[in-house]
Amino acid sequence: MLGEFQERIRSAAAQGSALQIQGQGSKTFYGELPKGELLDVSGFAGVSSYEPSELVITAKAGTPVRELEALLAEQGQHLAFEPPRFGGRGTVGGMVASGLSGPTRASQGALREHVLGLSLLNGRAELLNFGGTVMKNVAGYDVSRLMAGSLGVLGLILEVSLKVMPQPLARATVRFELGQSQALNQLNRWGGKPLPIQASAWWDGALLLRLAGAAAAVRAAQQELGGEPIPEALAQPFWDGLRDHSDEFFAGAARAVAGGAKLWRLSLPQTAPALQLPGEQLIEWGGGQRWVTTPLPAAQMREAALAVGGHASIFLCRDAQRHGVFAPPSEALLRIQRGLKQSFDPDRVFNPGRLYPEL
User: Fold this and answer.
1) Sign, Cα dihedral of 296, 297, 298, 302
2) Pick the CATH number of 170-244 from 3.30.70, 1.10.1760, 3.30.200, 1.25.40
3) Structural fold of domain 248-317
4) Which of these, 108, 196, 246, 352, has the minimum number of CB atoms within 10 Å of its CB?
């Protein structure tokens, strides 16, 4: 398939046309509206290599994330950043291109921190390789991690090497009845202690913590924190639903979006105070990621996020409202983005405008 991809890219560049990169289409809602002729990479799938003792796996872009995780689970390992799988349709290439991480991002690091290397085709159909399969392999620009969150505007990702981690030996979930301000204050206080808090989520007056690590550490943390223990049979579906955006909050958000509201994703300092905004809010990452379903105009949402040192982007909305999805970059950052686009994809073949209209 590599030759086919190269031919499609050369043809599009020669004709001045664009290609819309897509795996299984689980994230076509994300970013600006897709443009161009479909370039289907779902058939370019399979695990190229897996070294459990080295904690590294390499897979082709069309490989379903669920299949990758099933293989890792056989060896007691997992993707520690818990990428969303969107009903099982998420692929490795889309996972990297979207740059989305799950509930454990605050404790385990973002997706880009787990990308060791990748290969891609640029806008000239040239095969490029970056990074490797060990942690200390970066010299100059860390291009492999630059691809995380690029939404495919720089190149066609072919293969990715990822750092994997052993699954925790023990897990426990506890629940607290707290208002938003109380929950944020508690999270900040607990954040200064050596507690094995792997994930947190606040919504509708309830704060849930997932503890993970050595059994003794988890038991000790439960005793110190208190709260209502949640049986694993109930807790795991909740965290999976949060990760895959299929739980009650996101289902309600989808209904609100159908009625004209937007689902906003706010990236804020963990110490940012509670935001008094109309609509539903869900808070993750110790306060660092906040989801807001609201009909407020974009200017007000971005002003609210900027006022506390963060930024806001539209995660889900009607296609008719789908413009200005990401916060406008500074002129300095935009110059860098334009330079990268010119270097990797000078003829604007890949996903034009998907990240910013200028790209």
Assistant:
1) negative
2) 3.30.70
3) Alpha-Beta Plaits (3.30.70)
4) 246
- pLDDT, tens digit (0-9, with 9 covering 90-100), for 172-200: 999 999 999 999 999 999 999 999 999 99
Delimiting residues of CATH 3.30.70 domain(s) in the chain: 170-244, 248-317
Instruction: List, for residues 327-353, the tens digit of each pLDDT value.
Output: 988 999 999 999 999 999 999 999 999
pLDDT (tens digit per residue) in 206-254: 999 999 999 999 999 999 999 999 999 999 999 999 999 999 999 999 9
pLDDT in tens, 274-306: 999 999 999 999 999 999 999 999 999 999 999
Separation between Cα atoms, residue 148 and residue 97, nearest integer Å: 5
CATH code for the part of the protein at 2-166? 3.30.465.10
Q: Please, where in the chain does CATH 3.30.465.10 lie?
A: 2-166
CB 334 within 8 A of CB 356: yes
Sign of CA dihedral 268, 271, 272, 276: positive
